[in-house]
Amino acid sequence: MKTFKSLAILTAAASIFLGGCGSGGSNGAANESASENFPEEPIKIIVPFAAGGSATTTARLLAEYSEEPMGESIVIENREGGGGTIGQQYVSTAEPDGHTLLLATTSIVTSPIFNETAFTHEDFDPILQVVSDVSYLYVNTDAPYDDIDSFIEYAKENPGKVTIATSGAQASDTIAAKEFIEAAGIDATVIPYDGAAPGVASVAGGHDSAAMSSFGESEGQVQAGKIKPILVFSENKSTKYPDVPTSYEKGYEISDESWRGVVAPAGTDPEIIKYLQDAFKAGFDNPEFKEKMENQGMDPIYKDSKEFKQSIDNVYKRFSENM
């Protein structure tokens, strides 16, 4: 699978031939580009969060099924701290040779917007997206509303009483919740928690009226019969809850997804980006990878480097406009 290395051999051979013909190309082999020998060492994927979370799981499973097509071993390293900024900063300043990569989340965009960092999302070159976890609106199963229409009706009849829990003040689901409140014309309050789990627990306990959360973060409480989803913030129907209406079906053009993917330091050779994309795509396409991801409550969604860049740019635009 060492496509570039094979190309380097052909290049060297051609250079020797041309040199013999007096073309002055005898140094061609010495001048071959770094991309022609890629990869030259194990690939390292930095996960900027503590081990054990969904980001680490994503990186480890992707590495497991991409090593063979990559033609080199793939090492996962957790560099947590600063809400992900320590690991992100490390990769943003790494040598752009394709050997040090980052497991990226939306925080590569939001952290520089809300905090002082030495990097922005433009310091990374996207390779591919592998996960898209959409947000759902969950309510308590014993609440006086059992679908999105009755939820909105209740909120209008009880102005100021409804609360919607989210995963953090700077999280995308907070912006989505605020956009939904405005679009629905209701008087409700967004309650940001430190992560999705506390908000889900609050709704399960009957404290908050609703919670924005992903399938993976909430399914335990759904299976326990404590909460249920009434809306998915997406243009597309949910494969997890096919009977739950989408925000677009209800006339609210609001979507919210938490994506994960792989990026490289800015300035990485486009040929190396393509090689990495193809190798990781082969791992992504392995049925066992998709099955294990789905068993972890994650939706494997592929986007190539250009499509992934568009997703990143969309997050930047959305958060910048909601500052």
Automatic annotation (TrEMBL):
<dbReference type="Pfam" id="PF03401">
    <property type="entry name" value="TctC"/>
</dbReference>
<dbReference type="InterPro" id="IPR005064">
    <property type="entry name" value="BUG"/>
</dbReference>
<keyword id="KW-0675">Receptor</keyword>
<comment type="similarity">
    <text>Belongs to the UPF0065 (bug) family.</text>
</comment>
<dbReference type="InterPro" id="IPR042100">
    <property type="entry name" value="Bug_dom1"/>
</dbReference>
<protein>
    <submittedName>
        <fullName>Tripartite-type tricarboxylate transporter receptor subunit TctC</fullName>
    </submittedName>
</protein>
